[in-house]
Amino acid sequence: MKHILCFGDSNTWGYSPQDGSRFPIDVRWTGILQKALGGDYCIIEEGLNGRTTFINEEGEDARPFRSGSDFFPTLLESHRPLDLVTIMLGSNDLKLEYDLSIEEIAKGAKALCDMVINSEYLAEHPPAILLISPTHFNPEIIEDEIEIFGDASEKSRQFAEHYQKVAKELDIHFLDAAKHVTPSEGEGIHWDADQHIKFGNVLAQKITKILL
Questions:
Q1: 66-80 average pLDDT score
Q2: Gap between the Cα atoms of 164 and 92, Å rounded
């Protein structure tokens, strides 16, 4: 059996743009991926709302453990052995409070990939890595999100260019999610159910080729 760890944020967790609830497993892209690949694969969901590549929230209302780099090594040890790790993070790094450039965010994504490559717990059976650049923000996001992200739409359109450079440098696999998925028109950041279904099937085709 092939074991695949899917590491991401709210769009991996399955956040509904309609009401903030979690889509059921048969709608989330990870569930669609499991169904498409079948019983010879085990999909390990590791999505968390607000997760970044390397930054933690601050302030009175800050949620703990939002830095992916703080938590990732433990997950790699916990879920080993692994045949593939997918990483799709960076959207939350665009928050105004972090004031990060797209180059800094890509560097954070690279650090996560390096953690997989250099993990002593995975050394005997090194997994393949699929770095996924996040989807674009819609130009018009809801008012609550504007206060958090400002005009992050233009910057989000630079993800693919910089993440692909990271993938090439590390000789790992790459996928541009924005070529296949668009966020909800009514909210602008998270994916509607039909986009989860679409992405899960696209990813299944990609992974089948990687793990031949």
A1: 96
A2: 19
